[in-house]
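Q: Can I see a sequence and its folded structure?
A: Here is a first one.
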Amino acid sequence: MKSLFPYYLLIILLVSITLHSCAVDEGPFVDPTCEPDNMVISYSIDIQAIFNSNCVACHTESHPKLNLLTCCSYAELTATGFSAPYINTTTPTASKLYKHLVGELLIMPPSGKLPDHQVDKVLKWIEQGALNN
């Protein structure tokens, strides 16, 4: 009589591989830095998040030129800030905000240029009309 051990071992191995492959599969890869061209950029979700991560350590209510805290940032950028408006929707690359982010004016943040995908997101938001959405 033949031993069934090799067959059991093969079955266990196949089941193990199958179960492991299902547990590891996280679906299709999505690059967080790549967004569809038709995606609407949200000021409150996308742009304020960039400010919160990179700017509000300095740009608070005590900053002499620009408060980028959630409560005030949109008004400061568009109407009431020291050098407002920082946004130019007619010529987005001429916006003071954009020029600071790419280093045409004093680079912001001072620690160094933001990642390109964040700068591109800000520019796209301005190109879309710099909505307070």
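Q: Show me another, different protein.
A: A second, unrelated one:
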Amino acid sequence: MAAALFNQIADPKKAHAISAGTNPGSAVHPVVLISMNEVDIDLSSVQPTLLTDDLAAGAAMLVTMGCGENCPIIPGVKREDWPLEDPKGKPLERVREIRNQTQSLVLALVEKEKWK
């Protein structure tokens, strides 16, 4: 959700987000698809990606979401950790709340880094 929201909001000439996880599922959860469609983002063709050290090393910033010691540590790369609840298995109403919280964090980051 965060990467898709980021890429919808940020100026693509200034920044682009790639989504990856330490334990990605085989597909985006159906309830997440529904909640993101509500804000005109179609994730139906997105394949979850494994977060590797190589992938992280190419980043200017890592935004983690509670991966703890499984998060890569890349010297010289800015990092923020967002305390977001995993939407997996949650009812649609809760996933909407998580989406909205994520959107607020994305907006704040884009504004702070002047990526709009």
